[in-house]
C-alpha cells in the first residue's frame, strides 16, 4: 500500500510544472534563509531545482557574489554538509557600472533611494558566516575582495561541481568565467543569476563562449534563471 502511494505521488510530481515542483520541494528552505537573501522565493527555489541536476557530480560548490550567504546556504541543503564551499565576495558592494553594463544598470546604481538598491548590494561578512553556520556546512571558505584579486587564489586542483555567478557586471562575470569555467567538472553546472537582468552579464557570457568557440547551450527556467551544463 505504501509503495502504491509513493508511486502515485511520484507520478503526480512528474506532471507538475517547474514552478510547482520547486515550491513543493524548497519553500521550507527559502523560509529558513529568507533573511539572508534578496532573491525572490520563486527564483530561489529554481536555483535549488537546477542544483539538483549536479548532485551526482563530484567537486566543490563555488559562488561568486554571495551578499548575506542565503543562496549558498540553501545550496548546502541540496548538496550536503560534507562538500567544500567557496564564497567569493567583496562584501563592500558592487564596483562602479561601466557603459557595457547598460543604461538600466547605471540607473539602478544611481538610484540610491530605491527599495531594491540594498546599499549597492553591500553586506557585512558576518551575515554570510551566520547563514553558513545555520546550514551546517563543515568545510567553508570565505574569500573577501574583488574578483580580479581573489579568484587566482582558488586551487585549480579542486574540480567544481556547481558554479553560481551572481556578480552582475560585465568585468566581474568575465573574470569569473575566465578563471573558474575551465575548472567546472564535466556535467557540472554554471548558474548565471543576472543573465536576464543586466546587459553586461549576458554580453560577458556570450563573449566568453564565443572567444573559446564553445558550443555549450544556455538553459533557462521560466526566463528567470539561466544556466549552462558543461
Overview of the molecule:
This protein has 230 residues and is of the alpha/beta class. The protein contains ten helices and seven strands. It has a single domain, classed as Rossmann fold, CATH 3.40.50.150. 44% of the residues lie in helices and 18% in strands. The radius of gyration is 18 Å and the shape is globular. The model has no long low-confidence stretch (mean pLDDT 92).
Give the strand order, joined by hyphens, for the main sheet: 3-2-1-4-5-7-6
Number of domains: 1
- Structural class call reads alpha/beta
Helical content stands at 40-55%
Please report the total strand number as a whole number. Answer: 7
CATH class: Alpha Beta
CATH superfamily: Vaccinia Virus protein VP39
